[in-house]
Design brief:
Strand content: 15-25%
Number of domains: 2
Order of helices and strands: HEHEEHEHEEHEHEHEHEHHEHHHEEH
CATH class of the largest domain: Alpha Beta
Structural class: alpha/beta
Strand order of the largest sheet: 2-3-1-4-5-6
Largest sheet: 6 strands, mixed
Radius of gyration: 20 Å
Mean pLDDT: 93
Distance between the termini: 33 Å
Number of helices: 14
CATH architecture of the largest domain: 3-Layer(aba) Sandwich
Helix content: 40-55%
């Protein structure tokens, strides 16, 4: 198929799949599409003398919808699908990418199990998983004196994975988990769960949930007069913007990119902001730009578009961009890069609309992510 396309001068197809219209669209959504478009433009718009065509699809946060769309794309000549979203879909995509011998490159799928229990030979977790984010938050909160924890967890694979890892981190640091409860993915009222957490008298309430649920929980916790430390384990700049510094001040956040961290970050952010309605990119947007850029670079270097050749080049070429410096793709599919620990500023400390973080630490890439484990992933030797 790819040879026929090349001979015909047809388009070189890649695709973005994510939540374009639902509750997590601000997390990736149209922002990731713009980032991919910018990567294509910066690359020159062509690869292997073929125009690059970007397909975009909304998976509606449904596994069946996403798999049907992905299957259609792969069958039509798409070589790589980026972003993807909810972890249950991402996990299912590992098998489909292997079956079709195509690539699935996860830039917004956060389950750490994508590189452990559900690792796949054609899947790459490019930007992050929940593990380094929650590690930064838990360390920050426990250094502040919190020893006992209660978790409110979104009731699907991502949430349960986050809680399991978080419990191990708390125990390692000498803390204790004294209870937990769950909420539905679509829930908007968390009063029952918050009141249970309050009644537990735990020092900290860990939010093992999605970044779109955390702001509502934080607001409701304040309304109930909850005085325990509320610690969202998956949070990003767009969530803080929506919540506001008054409510978010003092929260710890672990991220691999912040628009104001250095000159290169600021330069890209301003380009993006000018084309995205005045909104700064989050690390998923920048990670999508990174993944698409490296993929196209690898295709060009391979001189052909078959999956084996492209994947080999992706693993042999160093990754250098706004997130990753001299990075590599591990055998389990994890891209390694540093994570930064930020503390949300007080309103009085912020000098502009998007001035939200103070960097308080750095976690090197080889420490930020869980070590590869042959007992959990058969790709690791």
């Amino acid at each position: 198929m790819s040879g026929a396309w090349a001979q015909a001068g047809g388009p070189f197809k890649i695709a973005i799949m994510n939540d374009m219209s639902g509750p997590v669209k601000d997390m990736s959504g149209p922002g990731s599409v713009l980032a991919a478009q910018m990567a294509i433009e910066d690359f020159g718009g062509k690869v292997l003398n073929r125009p690059i065509e970007l397909l975009v699809g909304d998976q509606l946060n449904k596994v069946d919808t996403g798999l049907t769309l992905a299957r259609q794309w792969y069958d039509s000549g798409v070589g790589a699908i980026f972003d993807i979203g909810i972890s249950s879909l991402a996990i299912a995509m590992q098998d489909l990418a292997k079956e079709k011998n195509k690539l699935a490159i996860f830039t917004s799928s956060a389950s750490a199990e994508l590189t452990t229990k559900y690792c796949g030979p054609n899947g790459i977790q490019w930007v992050y998983n929940a593990y380094p984010m929650q590690q930064a938050v838990i360390n920050g909160v426990m250094k502040g004196g919190a020893k006992t924890w209660y978790f409110i967890t979104v009731d699907y694979s991502f949430g349960h994975s986050v809680q399991k890892d978080a419990e191990a981190m708390v125990a390692k640091l000498g803390g204790k988990v004294i209870g937990s409860t769950t909420h539905a993915f679509s829930a908007t009222d968390f009063s029952s769960q918050l009141l249970q957490a309050q009644a537990s008298k735990a020092d900290a309430i860990g939010l093992a949930t999605t970044s779109f649920a955390s702001p509502a929980m934080i607001k409701q916790a304040k309304e109930f007069g909850i005085t325990q430390v509320v610690a969202p384990l998956s949070f990003m700049i767009s969530d803080i913007k929506g919540l506001g510094l008054e409510a978010a001040q003092g929260l710890y956040v672990g991220e691999p990119y912040y628009w104001d961290r250095d000159a290169d970050s600021r330069k890209f952010a301003m380009r993006f902001k000018d084309r995205f309605g005045g909104k700064m990119p989050n690390f998923i947007h920048v990670g999508t730009y990174s993944a698409v850029s490296h993929y196209l670079k690898s295709v060009a270097a391979a001189g052909k578009d078959d999956t084996a050749s492209v994947l080999a080049k992706m693993k042999s070429l160093p990754i250098n961009d706004l997130i990753t410096k001299n990075g590599t793709i591990r055998a389990d599919g994890q891209v390694l890069h540093d994570f930064y620990v930020f503390k949300v500023k007080k309103p009085s400390e912020s000098k502009s609309e998007w001035d939200m973080f103070t960097q308080v630490g750095t976690v090197p890439g080889n420490e930020a992510f869980r070590a590869p484990d042959p007992a959990l992933c058969n790709l690791v030797k």
